Amino acid sequence: MIDNIKKYGQIMGTLLLAYFVSIIVGDTVFMNKTPVMRPNLMQYIAIKTQSQFNTLIAGLGINNGKQSPASDVKSYAQVEKSMDSIPFSQLTKGVYAKDNGVNSITVIKSGELETVEYSYVINGKIVKIRVPKNFPLSEQQIKEAVLSDN
């Protein structure tokens, strides 16, 4: 009897662990609840881990003589002014960026993007969605993602 309870407890514990791991991995590995893996996964994990570590350190009140991260943050206007001399590079039609090694600015001009528009009826309302022309998801996958958010 005790062995059965122990066995079922282990099974339930394993299922709960698997559930929470799938939630964490799903949000980290995949982009915005789509089946598309993050192309910058390792950078994303490093930044997220560093951010959580900084939050923990700040919460504990430990700064080891360093300035707080908030004091290093520049306003967008300061970053833009410091990068005035750097020209924008066109990454793709409608997407431009410039980088100085420390900061980067990305501009998306939606009027220049080649998009495809999809219309769906959700809860009696027409919802129109524009996605980039070569978006890696099919129309059916986009529709499922839109319906799952509502």
What's the gist of this structure?
The protein has 150 residues and is of the alpha+beta class.
State the share of residues found in helices, binned by percent.
40-55%
| Quantity of strands, as a count | 5
- The largest sheet has its strands arranged as 1-2-3
Secondary-structure element sequence?
Answer: HHHHEEEEEH
The class by helix and strand makeup works out as alpha+beta
Report the span from N to C terminus. Answer: 46 Å
Radius of gyration: 23 Å
Question: How much of the polypeptide forms β-strand, as a percent range?
Answer: 15-25%
User: What's the pLDDT, averaged over the residues?
Assistant: 78
The shape, in one word, is flat
Low-confidence stretches: none
The total domain count is 2
Counting DSSP H or I runs of 4 or more residues, the number of helices is 5
* Biggest sheet record: 3 strands, antiparallel
Description:
The protein has about 150 residues and is of the alpha+beta class. The chain folds into two domains: about 1-110, no CATH class; about 115-150, no CATH class. About 45% of the residues lie in helices and about 20% in strands. The chain is built from five helices and five strands. The strands form two sheets. It has a three-stranded antiparallel sheet, with no helix packed on it. Strands 4-5 form a two-stranded antiparallel ribbon. A hairpin with a 2-residue loop joins β1 (about 90) and β2. The radius of gyration is 23 Å and the shape is flat. The protein starts with a helix and ends with a helix.
